[in-house]
Please model this.
Amino acid sequence: MRNLVLIICLGFLPLLFSCHKEEKPDIAAAIAAKEYYDILLNGNSEQFVRGMYLPDTIPVSYREQLVANVKMFVENMKNEHGGIYEIRVVNCINENIKNAKGETIGRKATAFLVMCFGDSLNEEVAVPMVERNGQWFMK
Model:
């Protein structure tokens, strides 16, 4: 009888240790990056450029060049790979930005996304992100 109780207790021991609370990774930056690319895939290049970490005011001609470059990127992907049909989040690595005193003054991250192309190719890309006023921007 003792052996049976011991075996039952030992059987529940792994369950006891497996019930710890697992910390979920912070993937907010990767989700933001995916949303920006989804916006791009929906044809809104201007909104995609607004998701870039840029000074508050930039010359209009520079903004127009950025939008034109983004449109060229999308067009090239259509010509070379049949377009991008899906963006997936793979991982996100977060870091704190510290000043000379070691105080945290901001956050940055690297979002890892997979671009799924129309010709069945997949490509993993790393998108550097920076947080400003609680919002993530592409760097």
User: Anything to note?
Assistant: The chain has a mean pLDDT of 87. Helices lie at 2-18, 28-41, 45-50, 60-81. The two ends are 66 Å apart (CA to CA).
